[in-house]
Amino acid sequence: MSTVTVGVVGAGRIGRMHASNLVHHVPEARLKAVSSPHIDEGWTRGLGIPVATQDNEAVFRDPEIAAVIIAAPSGRHVELIRRAAEAGKHIWCEKPVAFDPQSITSAIEAARAGGVQLQVGFNRRFDPSIRRLAEAVRQGEVGELNGLRIINRDPKAPPIDFVKRSGGMFFDFTIHDLDTARHLSGRDIEEVYAAGAVLVDPAIGAAGDIDTAIVTLRLQGGALCVIDNSRQTGYGYDQRFEAFGSKGNLVVDNLRPTTVEAFLDGGVFEDTPLPSFIERYQDAFIEELRAFIGCVRDGSPVAVTAEDALAAVRAAGAARTSMLENRPVRLDEETRGGGR
């Protein structure tokens, strides 16, 4: 097939971004329909999308649509994956697929039964700098890997209503870092030790979550990884990555609007990091959709699987257990228990 006809399910901030990227940056895709309970028909007309509907079934029933982008709230992902698979649509789904391993396993089984592709939206894997770092580690440029360091800090704490439905910081936020650790190292996570606190906004604690965390991972083969998380910086979106090994060190620094440095009487100044994940990972968001459409066109395996999502959710569950019980938690313990 030359062009893949696509539908988008969910038109919140993320769904709208994916829809716009498909229209403007993925010429191999034709976006025919968007469904959402609160659809903005003026927005869809502006993008030239023929069908705007509140009915998800209109997307799944359309025989012309070969693939769907699922960007609805996380709690609905598995249900929508099942329905899309039953309709024979290839599936790209935002993370997390679900908050528990059993639900993700059922999504994997549904996609397999439907004979369709299922890619998960861990967008960092498509970022040029992170991809280069992963390749360097796997090709031995740092020698024997000793440690990874991942800094992930949001510019501003999320609204409390989002916190209440997010699944918790480890599942909504740290889950990207857990997947990144696996991607950079090419190794599974064997053990997790996590500490969390409420240091940004007491309302986040009142909602039953944390806003600050340090997570230590022991990777297969013995290498260690430290993840440093905060819900608020006040100075932009802080994203830094480091791989240290027997031959040296590789670093991915923050991206900034410009690389200008000012050396003045009052001090040395440079731009603050980019303001949000939308700007920081703009290229990665586009590339992950291009990769998915390419897999649909030629039948090749997707780059980020639901099994990757399952591994990340199991690690997030281990982090939650570790924080609550103040002890290291092995991933095989979480797997035997089916997650917590």
Indicate the CATH topology of the largest domain. Answer: Dihydrodipicolinate Reductase, domain 2
Rg from alpha-carbon coordinates = 20 Å
What is the number of helical segments per DSSP (H or I, 4+ residues)?
A: 14
State the name of the first-level CATH class of the largest domain. Answer: Alpha Beta
Strand order of the largest sheet: 12-11-7-10-9-8-15
Count of the domains: 2
Average pLDDT works out at: 96
Q: Which spans of ≥5 residues are poorly predicted at pLDDT below 50?
A: none
- Give the DSSP E fraction (strand runs of 2 or more residues): 25-35%
Order of helices and strands, N to C? EHEHEHEHEHEHEHHHEHEEEEEEHHHEH
Total strand segments? 15
Task: Choose one word for the global shape.
Answer: globular
End-to-end Cα distance, whole Å, is 43 Å
The CATH homologous superfamily of the largest domain is termed Dihydrodipicolinate Reductase, domain 2
Please bin the fraction of helical residues. Answer: 40-55%
- Helices and strands: which structural class? alpha/beta
Structural overview:
With 340 residues, the chain is of the alpha/beta class. It has two domains: 4-116, NAD(P)-binding Rossmann-like Domain (Rossmann fold, 3-Layer(aba) Sandwich), CATH 3.40.50.720; 128-281 and 311-337, Dihydrodipicolinate Reductase, domain 2. The chain contains 14 helices and 15 strands. The strands form three sheets. Strands 12-11-7-10-9-8-15 form a seven-stranded mixed beta sheet. A six-stranded parallel beta sheet has the order 3-2-1-4-5-6, with helices on both faces. The chain has a two-stranded antiparallel ribbon with strand order 13-14. Strand 13 (261-264) and strand 14 form a beta hairpin. The longest helix is centred in the last third of the chain and has 20 residues, at 306-325. The protein is globular. The mean pLDDT is 96.
